[in-house]
Amino acid sequence: MNETVARPLRADAERSVRAILEAAERVLSTDPGASMEQIAIAAGVARTTIHRRFAHRQALVDALALSAARQLHQAVEDGRPDTAPPSVALHRITANVLEVKGAWAFALELPADPDSEAAALHEHIGRRCITVLERARADKLIDEAADLHWVRRVYYALLGASLRGSPDETGIDIDTLAARIIDTLLHGAGPRG
């Protein structure tokens, strides 16, 4: 039996990769054409370290997109979409997603190759969102006639608008912002009865 198994990185190598990915997010979000050398400087590592981990710039960008997708997926799963009460799951997931999307905005906007793990994770996240919305509908938080795919699109739009923010929203904590998103999603802007 001759199988090749990818070994996990040593702790120092894992820290190095993490620093490179974090630097790539910062640098590429302000200058998408930045060089590997610029990213290395921002990460505090030698350019050879980046090239040892990532054969070329596209490999780094792909790793960045995958890392961000994995974090987003974990943020959704940490909200317990199957087991937490739907209103709690919606709030937790929203707060978690706001944190991840706020930290990895550039990477999460990168187009994923349709056959990539990142694309599969994004599809799975979409299905998990529908799962929570179905549970919310079963709990009568969402109208039974609502098109859940449309509700998901509205939810994503609210997340996006919240992340872009406005000057009068500086200093709002993640939980307050998540509560606003869920309140707007479930109740709109109409008068309360």
Helix content: 55-70%
Q: What is the CATH architecture annotation of the largest domain? A: Orthogonal Bundle
Mean pLDDT: 90
First-residue to last-residue Cα separation: 68 Å
Strand count, sense and barrel status of the largest sheet are:
none
Structural class: mainly alpha
Number of helices: 9
Number of strands: 0
Return the string of H and E elements. Answer: HHHHHHHHH
CATH T-level fold name of the largest domain? Tetracycline Repressor, domain 2
Rounded to an integer in angstroms, the radius of gyration calculated over CA atoms is: 19 Å
The CATH fourth-level homologous superfamily of the largest domain = Tetracycline Repressor, domain 2
In the predicted model, the low-confidence regions spanning at least 5 consecutive residues are 1-6
Structural key phrases:
single chain, about 190 residues, mainly alpha, Arc Repressor Mutant, subunit A, Tetracycline Repressor, domain 2, 9 helices, elongated
What report would you give on this structure?
With 193 residues, the protein is an all-alpha fold. The protein has two domains: 1-54, Arc Repressor Mutant, subunit A; 64-187, Tetracycline Repressor, domain 2 (Orthogonal Bundle). Helices cover 69% and strands 0% of the residues. The protein is built from nine helices and no strands. It has helices spanning 11-30, 36-43, 47-53, 57-78, 86-103, 105-109, 117-138, 148-164, 174-187. Helix 5 (86-103) crosses helix 9 and helix 7 (117-138) packs across helix 8. The longest helix has 22 residues, at 57-78. The radius of gyration is 19 Å and the shape is elongated. Mean pLDDT is 90; it is low at 1-6.
